[in-house]
């Protein structure tokens, strides 16, 4: 046969296999579809349609490494394909290769004729969320909503925005997002998950009664929800509420641990409740369980230092505070407690002042501590040394592992639609 006849035969076979692959995809028979597209490639190794289809099948099956390989092969043949760059960015995002994802999305914005694609900005929003750049993530998600308020991921976008607004302390906007998806939460989330998030927003706003009401609604649906039981225990632990009750707090923490005894925060909160009841032995036991599960949480070690201080184990208190500061030197309460230790034990006035000054640098609004430093430096007579304090919101500081991760991945500039070359 002549070369022309062979080329026509190869082209016919390629299209036949492509058709079979499309039919298999429609029937969700992914293996058969992949086999068909690979057969098409045997007849034409440069078939853009076959490469794209295999890549899309791999992506749908969450085989992202293979999808990346096929999308790269497409781009090696046609590197101005904005849609493929966008799909490649999503795959890199799913493998947590943020730098490559950023580059791919940047190329997508450069080559797409119309960048007003909500799916693209949804992916860019997740990228910045992974980087921890909440402002850029918010900007991308809001852009996706404006482009198409009804696109398929819209409820997930509202959920992610609700979380971001909560972290930014934009509580009204956070509640609006959660209310929008309450009856139709994005899968695999359920209504109880959204109720929990609403409760947590109210808790962060210190509207504890409203938070309690929402958490109790969750327990009506799932009485063994360990996280909700933990949160309710923490609410009953709060001293400035009408329903404060350390014994109830302990009860809820014990119920939470019965459902999940591997959460270090529950053990930690249980220890805090025992400290309120001045049961130092049980507090110590609970704190030990917490640090066994998470030895890199500086808040845990700060509380252990407070415990040692109250039991007059001042050398152990110093060791605990020192360990907390090695894990995170940016928590004012730890420096404050270290200053109290220096002041009360060995009359190390200058060391105490230095520690207090570090605390003020981190918490400039602490006028009471500033006054105490002044008295400590100027008074000739003994002054009353304050007692050590606990961290008011233990959730506000990340563990060392999370802090290290964020330092390793600095957020790049916000992606913008790029002006095309003439």
Which helices and strands, and how do they pair?
Blueprint: H1 3-26, H2 30-43, H3 48-60, H4 64-77, H5 82-94, H6 98-111, H7 118-131, H8 134-147, H9 154-167, H10 171-181, H11 191-204, H12 208-221, H13 226-237, H14 246-259, H15 264-276, H16 280-293, H17 298-310, H18 314-327, H19 332-345, H20 349-362, H21 367-378, H22 400-408
Helix pairs in contact: 1-2, 2-3, 3-4, 4-5, 5-6, 5-7, 6-7, 7-8, 8-9, 9-10, 10-11, 11-12, 12-13, 13-14, 13-15, 14-15, 15-16, 16-17, 17-18, 17-19, 18-19, 19-20, 20-21
Keywords: Nucleus, Repeat, TPR repeat
Protein name: TPR-like protein
Organism: Hesseltinella vesiculosa
Describe the structure.
This is TPR-like protein. This protein is an all-alpha fold. Among the domains are: 1-101, Serine Threonine Protein Phosphatase 5, Tetratricopeptide repeat; 297-390, Serine Threonine Protein Phosphatase 5, Tetratricopeptide repeat, CATH 1.25.40.10. Helices cover 72% and strands 0% of the residues. It is built from 22 helices and no strands. The chain has helices spanning 3-26, 30-43, 48-60, 64-77, 82-94, 98-111, 118-131, 134-147, 154-167, 171-181, 191-204, 208-221, 226-237, 246-259, 264-276, 280-293, 298-310, 314-327, 332-345, 349-362, 367-378, 400-408. Helix 1 (3-26) runs antiparallel to helix 2 (30-43), helix 9 runs antiparallel to helix 10 and helix 12 packs antiparallel against helix 13 (226-237). The radius of gyration is 29 Å and the shape is elongated. It starts with a helix and ends in a 14-residue tail after the last helix. The relative contact order is 0.05. Mean pLDDT is 88; it is low at 400-408.
């Amino acid at each position: 046969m002549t070369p022309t006849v062979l080329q026509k035969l190869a082209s016919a076979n390629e299209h036949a296999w492509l058709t079979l692959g499309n039919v298999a995809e429609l029937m969700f028979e992914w293996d058969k579809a992949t086999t068909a597209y690979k057969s098409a490639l045997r007849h034409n190794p440069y078939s853009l349609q076959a490469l794209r289809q295999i890549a899309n099948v791999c992506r749908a099956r969450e085989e992202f490494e293979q999808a990346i390989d096929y999308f790269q092969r497409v781009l090696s043949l046609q590197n101005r394909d904005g849609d493929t760059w966008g799909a490649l960015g999503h795959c890199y995002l799913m493998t947590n290769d943020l730098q490559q994802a950023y580059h791919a999305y940047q190329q997508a914005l450069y080559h797409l004729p119309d960048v007003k694609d909500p799916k693209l900005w949804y992916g860019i929003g997740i990228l910045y969320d992974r980087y921890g750049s909440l402002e850029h993530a918010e900007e991308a998600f809001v852009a996706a909503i404006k482009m198409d308020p009804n696109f398929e991921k819209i409820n997930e976008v509202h959920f992610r925005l609700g979380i971001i607004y909560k972290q930014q302390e934009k509580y009204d906007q956070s509640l609006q997002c959660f209310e929008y998806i309450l009856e139709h939460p994005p899968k695999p989330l359920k209504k109880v998950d959204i109720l929990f998030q609403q409760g947590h927003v109210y808790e962060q706003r210190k509207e504890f009664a409203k938070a309690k009401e929402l958490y109790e609604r969750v327990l009506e649906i799932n009485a063994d929800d360990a996280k909700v039981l933990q949160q309710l225990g923490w609410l009953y632990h709060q001293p400035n509420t009408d329903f404060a009750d350390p014994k109830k707090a302990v009860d809820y923490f014990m119920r939470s641990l019965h459902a999940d005894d591997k959460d270090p925060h529950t053990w930690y909160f249980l220890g805090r409740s025992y400290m309120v009841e001045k049961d130092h032995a049980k507090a110590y036991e609970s704190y030990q369980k917490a640090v066994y599960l998470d030895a890199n949480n500086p808040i845990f070690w700060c509380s252990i230092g407070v415990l040692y201080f109250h039991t007059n184990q001042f050398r152990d208190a110093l060791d605990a505070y020192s360990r907390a500061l090695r894990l995170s030197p940016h928590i004012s309460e730890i420096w404050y407690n270290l200053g109290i230790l220096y002041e009360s034990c060995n009359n190390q006035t200058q060391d105490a002042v230095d520690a207090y000054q570090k605390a003020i640098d981190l918490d400039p609004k602490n006028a009471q501590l500033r006054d105490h430093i002044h008295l400590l430096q100027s008074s000739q007579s003994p002054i009353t040394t304050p007692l050590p304090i606990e961290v008011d919101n233990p959730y506000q500081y990340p563990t060392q592992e999370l802090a290290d991760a964020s330092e390793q991945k600095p957020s790049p500039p916000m992606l913008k639609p790029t002006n095309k070359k003439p």
